[in-house]
Amino acid sequence: MELRQLQYFLAVAEELNFSRAADRLNMTQPPLSAQIRQLEEELDVVLFERSTRKVKITAAGLLFKQSTQELFSQLRKNIDDARRAAKGEWGKLALGFVPSTTVEILPPILRDFREKFSDVRLDLHELTPEQQVRGLRDGTLDCACFYLPFAEIDPFGDRNLASTAISREPLVAALPPDHRLAAQRKIQVGDLADEPFVLVGGHSGQGLREIILEQCRRGGFVPHIVQEAALIQTIAGLVASGVGVALIPASVRRIQKIGIAYRALQQDPLDVEMGLIWMRENNSPVLTGFIDVARETNAALIRPNGSAS
After folding, report:
1. Among 30, 78, 146, 286, which residue carries the largest CB count within 10 Å?
2. Range of the structural domain that residue 11 is part of
3. Residue 158: per-residue pLDDT
4. How many separate helices (H) and strands (E) can be counted in the chain?
């Protein structure tokens, strides 16, 4: 049995006239009649009662007609779904992110993506950068979102991972409100040389950590680290508790305002980039669509003096 035989059957079942059905199918009547007889022989069922005056569909034919219509309806849906999936309009995207992205970077991206790709299911996972990299490698995540650059504990280095920046912002100093430097509008990073530092810890925030350490080096000192934390929000809370000072991305000021004095840095503070990271081998159209939306939505957050990788 072939699809074309089912198409022939539907034409006759709907027209109840072999001549009209043949015209509709752009064929002559004899081969159409032969195809219907062959179909009935294959099914071992009489689908039509024929006479010189009319064609009548049997009870078995009526049931087969309904089933065939449902089959073609499902087939059209399958074709449409496949085409939409190829365009990234249907499917699923598993996204990992660090909590600080929810302040201002990720919400507009998610909003715009949902509006443009309403039938794509978003699975969101709040994870550390290290957990996100593992998720990319084991296939549980399609895309990750954390601070760039990133270092890998992997024999292939970062060659298996691709990234693009979706925001760029300067570092600022976070001080307890009663700190001696809190009265100043801007401070020199070197003024923090003798201060106890709260720093993002190890591999969980490698890119951001390296930028902060480089900012300190440019200020002429190596920070005296008294506490490390995986999350920026935790660092802000520790500063508010008087544990030490910190250098953090400027957008964190919107997370915690009480108990912290945020001060801009003089003399060209370093920028930190938030990025999307994915496996180079992942050619999912849904992933491509998400990256395109993120770049377009957050274009204003990437200043001209930098570029995405």
Report:
1. 146
2. 3-86
3. 54
4. 9, 12
